[in-house]
């Protein structure tokens, strides 16, 4: 089972991003640490001082000098130091992304999509830590090698810090005056960054956005991915995060070719522990699981990769019948790269589920007039679609989640959520899967549902924060589609059109039966900045 690490945080320790001057004589990670340690979580009495200039290094100010004298580093400073120390220990090259570079990326995106809030986002991002990571970080972003990426370090912020940060970035305009509007604006930060870097690193004239997700999905142009690494995710699963970062730059303990492995169906008792140890979001129930086994130096068979799938459902796509399966989870063993691993697992699954002999489904699965496809969803926090044979057909909005002052993330939307109170003594009995499906406390959820109405000055965001839960947002979720077999009647349709002309369809928007949480979701949707 995966090791989970928790560092309790008092809500006043959770910081607002705030650059300060740092010493040129220190090592780079130490300088980043010094910057992070001068950042602060604003209380009700705090007033934001003058924001730093557009230069890469901000001038010191009274708040920065005061905070630099603190003996104990803030949790976010510790987070940044841990990440940069890991990069240095693994001899992974990195440098801080210059503000001019970042502004150029954002401006190029703004010019293309006519987004009016880019200037506001520039102000916010001046105070965030973005690292250019890869084998050669001396190059500019457009000439970056394939194993390079941008690493955006996302500390957990107190709700009041988010409000102050957004309000200050709009101090010369009418801006966002209510809590829901300020939080909703912040919710789109990571999604906007992902889209901006996709657009910047692509030669496509049409950027890939929430509204137009498939414009560059089938392009062979090189992508410069951006990873949004959240503080609570790093604290929870450092080994998995570190393995994924190393994989991005081509570092691995073992590199195996799929042709040298054996693909076979495996039971839940085998795939679930593997997923809990190696997948960032743990395991989940599935209809079937498949694994790749490699022969070790001791001539033993070792499980090195797992994929799990749902049961099939019949879908009409562009008036043609398809059997559609969902790829629920895929991962390899930590620090292991399997060249062609996903393709081999999918091939084994398809062969087993479409064989035309000795099968009760011979009439259907062996009938070439019925198409076969596989759908999956990927977390955009770790980049956009690079999966072989899959194309992006939909992108969903960022979803509201919450990190408690205990450092554990709670979900507001999703099936099978288990309510988890702060300082719950039963947390150790949850296990990996349980903690990954932790929900807000039942009492808070009920209060959100009963008190959510338009004339209530206290928003659901405020209610959550008053109970010790502060908002965190992903960069959205991409829906991917791989057509294994077409029925022959829709060969000319691109997958995006095939997806749109489907009955029944996957849900395209988040929703909740809880009025308070639905109010949050709707507020984020209505304040879309892309």
Please explain how this structure is put together.
The chain has 530 residues and is α+β, with helices and mostly antiparallel strands. Among the domains are: 76-248, no CATH class; 253-311 and 326-357, no CATH class. The protein has 18 helices and 20 strands. It has helices at 28-37, 62-68, 75-89, 99-113, 118-125, 159-169, 179-187, 189-200, 231-236, 238-248, 268-278, 341-354, 362-365, 431-436, 442-451, 460-466, 495-500, 515-526, and strands at residues 94-96, 129-133, 149-154, 226-230, 254-257, 262-266, 288-295, 301-309, 313-317, 320-332, 336-339, 371-379, 391-396, 400-404, 409-411, 418-419, 438-439, 469-473, 477-485, 502-503. The strands form 5 sheets. Strands 6, 7, 8, 9, 10, 12, 13, 19 and 20 form a 9-stranded mixed sheet that branches. β16, α14 (431-436) and β17 form a beta-alpha-beta unit. The protein is globular, with a radius of gyration of 24 Å. The protein starts with 27 loop residues before the first helix and ends with a helix. The model is unreliable at 1-26, 38-71 and 209-220 (pLDDT under 50).
């Amino acid at each position: 089972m995966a090791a989970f690490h928790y560092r309790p945080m008092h809500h006043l320790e959770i910081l607002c991003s705030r650059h300060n001057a740092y010493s040129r004589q220190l090592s780079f990670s130490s300088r980043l640490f010094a910057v992070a340690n001068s950042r602060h979580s604003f209380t009700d009495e705090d007033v934001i001082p003058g924001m730093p200039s557009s230069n890469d290094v901000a001038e010191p100010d009274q708040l920065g000098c005061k905070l630099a004298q603190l003996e104990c580093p803030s949790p976010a400073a510790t987070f940044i130091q841990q990440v940069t120390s890991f990069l240095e220990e693994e001899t992974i090259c990195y440098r801080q992304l210059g503000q001019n570079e970042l502004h150029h990326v954002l401006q190029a995106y703004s010019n293309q999509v006519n987004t009016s809030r880019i200037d506001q986002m520039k102000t916010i991002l001046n105070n965030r830590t973005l690292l250019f990571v890869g084998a050669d970080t001396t190059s500019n972003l457009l000439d970056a090698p394939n194993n390079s990426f941008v690493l955006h370090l996302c500390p957990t912020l107190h709700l009041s810090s988010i409000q102050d940060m957004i309000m200050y970035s709009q101090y010369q305009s009418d801006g966002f005056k209510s809590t829901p509007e300020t939080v909703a604006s912040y919710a789109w930060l990571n999604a906007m960054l992902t889209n901006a870097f996709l657009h910047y690193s692509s030669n496509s004239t049409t950027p890939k956005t929430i509204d137009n997700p498939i414009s560059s999905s089938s392009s062979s142009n090189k992508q410069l991915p951006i990873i949004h690494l959240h503080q609570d995710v790093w604290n929870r699963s450092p080994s998995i995060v570190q393995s994924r970062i190393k994989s991005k730059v081509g570092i691995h303990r073992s590199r195996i070719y799929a042709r040298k492995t054996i693909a076979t169906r495996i039971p839940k008792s085998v795939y679930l522990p593997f997923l809990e140890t190696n997948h960032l979001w743990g395991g989940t129930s599935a209809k079937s699981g498949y694994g790749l086994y490699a022969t070790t130096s001791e001539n033993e068979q070792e499980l090195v990769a797992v994929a799990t799938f749902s049961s099939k459902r019949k879908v009409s796509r562009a008036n043609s019948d398809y059997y559609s399966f969902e790829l629920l989870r895929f991962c390899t063993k930590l620090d292991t790269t399997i060249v062609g691993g996903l393709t081999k697992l999918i091939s084994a699954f398809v062969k087993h589920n479409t064989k035309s002999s000795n099968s009760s489904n011979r009439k259907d699965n062996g009938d070439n007039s019925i198409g076969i496809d596989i759908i999956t969803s990927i977390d955009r926090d770790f980049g956009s679609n690079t999966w072989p044979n899959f194309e992006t057909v939909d992108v969903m909005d960022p979803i509201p989640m919450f990190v408690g002052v205990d450092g554990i993330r709670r979900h507001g939307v999703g099936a099978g959520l288990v309510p988890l109170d702060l300082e719950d003594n039963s947390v150790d009995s949850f296990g990996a899967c349980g903690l990954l499906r932790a929900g807000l406390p039942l009492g808070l959820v009920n209060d959100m549902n009963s008190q959510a109405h338009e004339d209530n000055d206290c928003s659901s965001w405020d209610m959550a924060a008053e109970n010790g839960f502060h908002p965190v947002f992903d960069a959205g979720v991409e829906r991917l589609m791989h057509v294994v077999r077409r029925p022959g009647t829709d060969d000319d349709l691109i997958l995006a059109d095939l997806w749109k002309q489907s009955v029944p369809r996957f849900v395209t928007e988040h929703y909740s039966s809880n009025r308070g949480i639905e109010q949050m979701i709707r507020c984020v949707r209505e304040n879309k900045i892309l």
